[in-house]
């Protein structure tokens, strides 16, 4: 059902504006739409899930379960214009539940949003929509590593998943003001540590963060 090797996954032909239509057709039982849903979201969900766990088998199982549940219960799932946050929230919940089930000492608060390996393109490099040099990317990742887990996750969801503040609040189970605070503190710290960062990524990174 799912493509096991995401490294060679073809670029999805579905644009973000088509996600609601894709979701509707999947709910109506169209297998082609379901496959399109998997293809469209698998890579980014895999990347997001990989920030919580380095256990590739656990992550793969959670993704398989997520899409299997979607297909099995498609007739009971409501139509929604918020497909992306729905999937992010569902995967996040599954991963946290599985991690806590495998560790008696782990709680919801102890699940971290980890740094990615240097072999992968980072979500943060993608979120700024520009090409940074290896040195600049390494410097940005080092600064991001100094932020809290919640700040890093909020930045990921804002600029990589392209969720609104309301949608991020739903995924993180916090209010909208908390999301604005997380983004403000995280991005302000980046700006303080690297003042010229704005000249590389554009002022929109800070200017458009807190009102949407």
Automatic annotation (TrEMBL):
Alphabetized UniProt keyword annotations: Sigma factor, Transcription, Transcription regulation
UniProt keyword Transcription regulation present: yes
Record GO terms (molecular function): DNA binding; sigma factor activity
Domain RNA polymerase sigma factor 70 region 4 type: 139-190
Species of origin: Spirosoma telluris
Protein name: Sigma-70 family RNA polymerase sigma factor
Protein family membership: Belongs to the sigma-70 factor family. ECF subfamily.
Top-rank taxon, per record: Bacteria
One GO BP: DNA-templated transcription initiation
InterPro entries on file: RNA_pol_sigma-70-like, RNA_pol_sigma-70_dom, RNA_pol_sigma70_r2, RNA_pol_sigma70_r4_t2, RNA_pol_sigma_r2, RNA_pol_sigma_r3/r4-like, WH-like_DNA-bd_sf
Residue ranges constituting the RNA polymerase sigma-70 region domain according to the UniProt record: 37-103
Claim: Transcription is one of the keywords in the record: yes
NCBIfam families: sigma70-ECF
């Amino acid at each position: 059902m799912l493509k096991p090797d995401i490294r060679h996954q073809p670029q999805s032909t579905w644009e973000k504006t088509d996600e609601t239509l894709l979701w509707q057709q999947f709910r109506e039982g169209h297998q082609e739409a379901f496959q399109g849903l998997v293809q469209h979201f698998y890579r980014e969900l895999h990347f997001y899930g990989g920030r919580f766990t380095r256990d590739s088998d656990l992550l793969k199982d959670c993704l398989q379960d997520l899409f299997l549940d979607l297909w099995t219960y498609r007739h009971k799932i409501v139509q929604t214009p918020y497909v992306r946050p729905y999937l992010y929230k569902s995967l996040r919940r599954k991963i946290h539940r599985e991690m806590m089930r495998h560790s008696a000492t782990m709680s919801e608060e102890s699940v971290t949003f980890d740094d990615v390996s240097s072999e992968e393109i980072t979500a943060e490099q993608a979120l700024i929509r520009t090409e940074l040099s290896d040195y600049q990317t390494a410097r940005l990742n080092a600064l991001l590593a100094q932020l809290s887990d919640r700040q890093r996750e909020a930045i990921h969801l804002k600029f990589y998943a392209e969720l609104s503040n309301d949608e991020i609040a739903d995924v993180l189970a916090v209010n909208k003001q908390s999301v604005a605070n997380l983004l403000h503190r995280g991005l302000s710290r980046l700006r303080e540590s690297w003042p010229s960062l704005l000249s590389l990524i554009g002022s929109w990174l800070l200017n458009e963060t807190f009102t949407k």
